[in-house]
Specification:
Blueprint lengths: L4 E3 L16 H13 L4 E5 L7 H10 L8 E5 L6 E3 L2 E3 L2 E7 L2 E5 L1 H5 L3 H5 L8 E6 L13 E5 L5 E7 L2 E4 L14 E5 L3 E9 L3 E13 L5 E7 L4 E6 L5 E5 L5 E5 L8 E7 L2 E7 L20 E4 L1 E2 L3 E4 L11 E3 L4 E3 L2 E3 L3 E3 L4 E3 L4 E3 L4 E6 L15 H4 L30
Parallel strand pairs: 1-2, 2-3, 7-14, 15-21
Antiparallel strand pairs: 4-8, 5-6, 6-7, 8-12, 9-13, 10-11, 10-12, 13-14, 15-18, 16-17, 16-19, 19-20, 20-22, 23-30, 24-29, 25-26, 27-28, 27-30
Helix pairs in contact: 1-2
């Protein structure tokens, strides 16, 4: 069979405004000439010429020529389907396909992994799946059956065209239709719903297919951390359900926290490295999470922070008779930074980490050692307030040594339950 085909989508019309009024005399001449030249392939579809193309094929071809002298391919209105390749990892479905409904989510998979297993992924976490039309089901023509692809909202999920070893969003390409055998990549980018559609370039909406895609990302659910200097650290925070949490990093200072309800507080970090105490804070508004677009080759975002060696503040507690006080005390701790008093200071004692201006601790043999968190008190030049929360961000090296730490000594007075410091 010669490879040239006779497509009966655009037949001669006496009046171009009347798509259903086909010039049958001219069509018969064209069909006869095509066969006389040795060509045998014809195609038609119900939607061509307002339903008259199939009738024209019957009258000009089927009734006038032997059935063994030609091949007639008739498009069915339901012949075009979109195929999305399901994806599983560790036996858990990442991309689920149910008819024309597609769900892309890493949540169940990540929830099944330990911290070691998540970290072993080396941040290679994304949402992607192969998408194409049902090319093998029919004799699609590479030139005659070009397909147009589109995503209703490509900020949620994008259709990407293969460019060698890489993929590129079709919206950035200069051409609008593609060979029917092309396999694309659908990449999940943001949580939400969108529709991916494949449309026959010649037949238009009359020959098309679509799937609804639901994307569920790990935004505000999976958090990856790296702390320096490298060493085992303890993280404390409050999750989205209001529950206090404590989490241990690996020995290399890396951590992976999966919290379905998210992290609703700052993340306080404490580490003992080389016999020294290190402290730091990753502020809640600076936490980063969520998979990146698979075609961008970006890795899952990392919250990195340089911890600061804790400043030490020894406090000595004496009774009125000069002997050591050993018992409970109320601590009101603050830090002066460039002449500004920062009262809501996180500080560390031998037993736990606390906010300034609140809580009770115990002195030991007249001695109390406080370690304020220096990461919270880096001021902007010329600032007249503490402003630490937005001055230091995850991954920044700021902080520095505290300047002018202040503590106040008061004598224990009879009748007071806990002497203040």
């Amino acid at each position: 069979m010669k490879k040239l085909g006779f497509g009966m989508m655009r037949l001669p019309l006496p009046d171009p405004k009347e798509q259903g009024a086909v010039d049958m005399e001219q069509v018969c001449k064209m069909v006869d000439t095509f066969l006389e030249r040795g060509y045998t392939y014809f195609d038609t579809a119900y939607m061509y010429h307002a339903g008259q193309s199939e009738i024209a094929a019957r009258e000009a071809l089927v009734k006038r020529h032997s059935r063994d002298s030609f091949t007639l391919y008739i498009y069915d209105k339901n012949c075009l389907d979109i195929l999305v390749q399901p994806v599983t990892k560790g036996g858990i479905t990442i991309v689920d396909v149910d008819g024309d409904q597609v769900t892309m989510s890493n949540e169940a998979w990540i929830a099944s992994l330990t911290q070691d297993q998540i970290l072993a992924l080396n941040r290679d976490i994304d949402l992607q799946a192969a998408i194409s039309i049902n090319y093998s089901d029919h004799a699609w023509g590479e030139a005659s059956d070009r397909i147009q692809w589109a995503s209703e909202n490509s900020t949620i999920a994008a259709v990407n065209y293969p460019q060698g070893a890489y993929y590129e969003n079709i919206e950035s390409l200069p051409y609008t239709s593609f060979a029917p055998a092309t396999q694309f990549l659908i990449s999940g980018k943001n949580s939400g719903k969108t529709v991916a559609e494949a449309i026959h370039a010649l037949a238009g909406d009359a020959l098309s297919s679509s799937v609804e895609i639901t994307v569920e990302t790990l935004k505000d659910k999976l958090y990856l951390f790296q702390f320096y200097p490298v060493g085992k650290a303890t993280l404390t925070y409050t999750n989205g359900d209001g529950e206090p949490r404590t989490h241990e990093t690996e020995a290399d200072g890396r951590a992976a926290i999966y919290e379905p309800s998210g992290i609703s507080s700052d993340v306080y970090v404490e580490a003992d490295i080389g016999g020294e105490k290190y402290l730091g804070t990753v502020y809640q508004e600076d936490l980063v999470s969520q998979e990146k677009d698979a075609v961008s080759l970006e890795l899952y975002p990392l919250n990195s922070l340089n911890l600061r060696k804790a400043a030490t503040l020894p406090v000595y507690l004496k009774k009125p008779d000069g002997t050591n006080y050993d018992g409970a005390v109320t601590v009101r701790a603050g830090v002066y930074r460039n002449g500004v008093y920062c009262e809501d200071t996180m500080y560390n004692t031998a037993h736990r980490r606390r906010h300034g201006q609140r809580g009770h601790v115990h002195g030991r043999q007249g001695h109390l050692l406080l370690r304020p968190d220096p990461v919270q008190h880096k001021q902007r030049p010329g600032s007249h307030h503490c402003g630490g929360r937005r001055a230091i961000r995850a991954g920044a090296a700021g902080g520095g040594l505290l300047s002018r730490p202040v503590h106040r000594h008061r004598h224990y007075q009879r009748g007071r339950r806990h002497p203040p410091v």
